[in-house]
Structures are given as C-alpha cells and as structure tokens.
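FIELD: query
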Amino acid sequence: MNIEFYDHGATATIIINSWFWEFGRHCRVVDAALFAAPGSRYQMKGGIFMKTVINGKTVPLLRALKVAKQEAAR
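FIELD: result
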C-alpha cells in the first residue's frame, strides 16, 4: 500500500494505491481518511491495482493523512 500527499496551496490531494488482494485494508484506510476530512471529494478506480484520489482543503487532508497512515499500519 502506498499513500502519497500533494500540497497545492489552499487545496491538497491524497493518493492511495494498493493491489486487489489488499481490498479490505484499502477500503478501511479510505473510509478512515474520509471520516477525518469532512467536505472532501474522492474518486476510486482500479481492477488489479486500485487507486483512490481524495481532494479537499489542506488542513483537513493533513489530518486525514495522519489517520490513513495509522490505519494502514494496523
């Protein structure tokens, strides 16, 4: 699982990548990040390699990044 953070000033992007056999963990990490960042938008793609892009304001997404990394480490 790979979690990347991109800061664009007032907005930011989190990209979460993982393989299909990590589907349960991927969904758990994405759900935790979305709960930590209210008002954010997401787009999920994939088949064998899943990719989720979460966009929103920078401060809530920094909080979501911290939560997502903690959840991925579980």
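FIELD: remark
The chain has one domain: 2-53+64-73.
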